Amino acid sequence: MPYRIQRFSSTLKHSLGEILLNELSNPEFRFISISEVSLSNDLKKARVFISSPNDNIDEILIQLKKAKGFIKKLLPEKMKLKYIPELEFQVDVGFKIDQQISKIKKEIK
Q1: What CATH number does residue 70 fall under?
Q2: Can you tell me the distance from the alpha carbon of 97 to that of 101, in angstroms, rounded to the nearest whole number?
Q3: What does the alpha-carbon distance between residue 79 and residue 99 come to, in Å, rounded to a whole number?
Q4: Are 67 and 48 in contact (CB under 8 A)?
Q5: In terms of DSSP bridges, do strands 45-51 and 33-39 run parallel, antiparallel, or are they unpaired?
Q6: Where are the alpha helices (DSSP H) in the chain?
Q7: Could you tell me where the DSSP H helices lie in 19-92?
Q8: pLDDT (tens digit per residue) in 13-64
Q9: What is the mean pLDDT of the segment spanning 53-82?
Q10: Is 51 buried (19+), middle (13-18) or exposed (0-12) by CB count in 10 A?
Q11: What's the domain range around 11?
């Protein structure tokens, strides 16, 4: 991955984290962790992988998709951008698998 895309991805991840933590009024968004932001080569599309310790991650994902427009409106203020990539929120499957493995280990002990 080129350095420019890595740097932009890191900045986008940090800015999205700030918005979810401070700008949005939904209290469930405070428990979301952004594990990765994957950008297209032209920087027009961004996949945001989220995880949460809560079991209602699918409901949180639906609420995030509804708030996507508001999030895109706040991003230029945080990042000083002319064009904002199209955001696509997805659940980080790896985190879910890790939680299930930990749960099974606890049951075994």
Answers
A1: 3.30.300.20
A2: 6
A3: 33
A4: no
A5: antiparallel
A6: 3-18, 57-66, 68-79, 93-108
A7: 57-66, 68-79
A8: 999 999 998 888 888 888 888 999 999 988 899 999 998 887 788 898 999 9
A9: 87
A10: buried
A11: 3-108
